[in-house]
């Protein structure tokens, strides 16, 4: 025969039921209206980009005629040997990766944040290309439009695939070229774009001493791509395309093990450092690969 519940058990159950009823009856705090917050982020980003564009690209104003041009990709006869196209890819990629947590921070869900970041980035970069088409000094570039779209799609892909994000980093590095002042966005000759494959992202290597901190680092650059036209006839070797292969340190894993007991994303400082380490390349050991123009 089953024992009947005691008085104390009945009382505890009654209190639990009362708490559930009371919680369901209490009005929940109204969800904040995110439209103004989202609009502020979108408008603020557009204002910054628009101001930079006016100062850098559209200073001479616009025309009433929309003009287009084909620029090519990575060939030696293109103006910047494809460095400018990789810049468009990386800009779209970085914007999606950076804006997603920003939209989350103001109260959006993860899914809504990624959607807002993706469409905001793509829409803004497309609008910039359209303005180029109406500007006096530039033209709408089909290749730039494609590169923008690829970069945005790559950012979305990484945000939705944690295992891929743990394995691969897409990074940018810069060292001022001899013919330029410090100008990371505009000094194409000093830019390199990297793809790093991290041992930490391979389950079989994740806990192997020493190896877990290493990365296979591949990079592309075009030193001398900004060489003035009057110099090229005398020393064409200044302008070349190069690929690089090397080994670098996974600074995010090193920081986690050294300062946070192996934990990831445990503080705002660590998250900010991880974002920087994942998107900007710090010094690495390189073995020069192939000079594509020799």
Set down the secondary structure blueprint.
Elements: H1 7-25, H2 34-56, E1 68-69, H3 83-105, H4 110-134, E2 140-141, H5 142-160, H6 162-167, E3 168-174, E4 191-198, E5 214-221, H7 229-232, E6 242-249, H8 251-259, H9 268-279, E7 285-291
Parallel strand pairs: 1-2
Antiparallel strand pairs: 3-4, 4-5, 5-6, 6-7
Helix pairs in contact: 2-4, 3-4, 3-5, 4-5, 8-9
Short description:
This protein has 294 residues and is of the alpha+beta class. The protein is built from 9 helices and 7 strands; from the N terminus they run ααβααβααβββαβααβ.
Overview of the structural elements:
- With 294 residues, the chain is α+β, with helices and mostly antiparallel strands.
- The chain folds into two domains: 119 residues, no CATH class; 131 residues, no CATH class.
- It has nine helices and seven strands.
- The strands form two sheets. A five-stranded antiparallel sheet has the order 3-4-5-6-7. A two-stranded parallel sheet has the order 1-2.
- Helix 3 crosses helix 4 and helix 8 packs antiparallel against helix 9.
């Amino acid at each position: 025969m089953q024992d009947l519940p005691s008085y104390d058990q009945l009382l505890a159950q009654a209190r639990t039921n009362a708490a559930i009823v009371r919680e369901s009856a209490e009005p929940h705090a109204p969800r904040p209206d995110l439209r103004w917050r989202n609009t502020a982020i979108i408008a603020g980003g557009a204002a910054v980009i628009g101001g930079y564009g006016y100062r850098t690209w559209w200073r001479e104003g616009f025309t009433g005629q929309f003009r287009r041009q084909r620029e090519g990709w990575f060939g030696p006869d293109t103006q910047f040997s494809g460095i400018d196209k990789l810049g468009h890819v990386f800009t779209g990629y970085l914007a999606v990766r950076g804006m997603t947590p920003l939209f989350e921070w103001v109260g959006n869900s993860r899914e809504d944040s990624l959607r807002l970041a993706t469409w905001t980035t793509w829409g803004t970069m497309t609008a910039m290309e359209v303005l180029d088409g109406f500007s006096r000094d530039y033209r709408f570039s089909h290749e730039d439009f494609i590169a923008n779209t690829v970069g945005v799609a790559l950012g979305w892909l990484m945000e939705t695939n944690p295992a891929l994000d743990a394995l691969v980093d897409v990074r940018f590095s810069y060292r001022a070229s001899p013919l330029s002042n410090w100008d990371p966005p505009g000094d194409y000759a000093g830019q390199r774009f990297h793809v790093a494959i991290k041992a930490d992202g391979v389950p079989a290597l994740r806990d192997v001493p020493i190896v877990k901190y290493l990365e296979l680092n591949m990079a592309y650059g075009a030193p001398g791509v900004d060489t003035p036209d009057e110099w090229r006839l005398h020393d064409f070797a200044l302008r070349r395309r190069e690929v690089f292969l090397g080994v670098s340190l996974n600074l995010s894993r090193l920081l986690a093990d050294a300062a946070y007991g192996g934990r990831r994303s445990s503080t705002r400082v660590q998250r900010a450092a991880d974002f920087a380490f994942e998107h900007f390349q710090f010094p690495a050991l390189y073995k020069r690969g192939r000079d594509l123009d020799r």
